[in-house]
Amino acid sequence: MSLLLNVLIIGVSVDPLEQIQTEYRSGRSAFERGRYRQSVQHFETARDLVEKNTRLGGEVQIWLATAYQAVGQPQNAIALCRQLIHHPSWETRKQSRRLLEILQAPELKSNLEGLIEIPDMSGIEDNDRPMKVVQPTRSSTSRKPSKVESLPEPIDLTQVNTQDNGFLWISLIAIAAIVGGLFFFY
Questions:
Q1: What total of structural domains would you count in the chain?
Q2: pTM for this one?
Q3: What is residue 170's three-state secondary structure?
Q4: Count of Cβ atoms closer than 10 Å to residue 6 Cβ
Q5: CA neighbor of 41 nearest in space, from 67, 16, 66
Q6: Does residue 72 lie within any of the structural domains?
Q7: Chain segment 58-76, per-residue pLDDT in tens
Q8: CB of 102 within 8 A of CB of 117?
Q9: Which residues contact 20 (CB under 8 A, 6 or more apart)?
Q10: Per the domain annotation, does 7 fall within a domain?
Q11: For residue 96, what are the contacts with CB-CB under 8 A and spacing of at least 6?
Q12: 104-157 per-position pLDDT tens digit
């Protein structure tokens, strides 16, 4: 809004699309830096200037709903998302449905009984306590792994069935007959 007032006071004409995009970019930048109240102001200014049924108008309003949630105005965010469900842009409708599901989701309660509290160690500096380095020692009872243990056990060939298998001979003869038949026809 302040940019609009400055433009009116100075008397310089600014392209409305350029002004909308400036407010939109400023709102996104403020949001990404955690300045949510400032981003709401920029998005509201952009929303007031933009044609709401355009793709850009939908994007501005989705960002505005997200900013409303960030500043603690979930009812405004939900109301805006409910309006955007009927937006002409398919992408805006899809995003508004997803955002509405998130906004209306029940709040999860955490059970503090099963959680572990991590102490705050920010006040402790690394040099406050000397580090003790422990050298690993070899025990006399530890043994080195031998190379023989890692090799697979050899196969006893006397236990292998070496009798002729009839199926093997039949399949070899069938393959030979097929290959011979192919050579005969060419």
A1: 1
A2: 0.53
A3: helix
A4: 11
A5: 67
A6: yes
A7: 999 999 999 999 999 999 9
A8: no
A9: 46, 49, 50, 56, 60
A10: yes
A11: 62, 65, 81, 82, 84, 85, 87
A12: 988 777 776 667 777 766 666 655 555 555 555 555 555 555 554 566 777 777
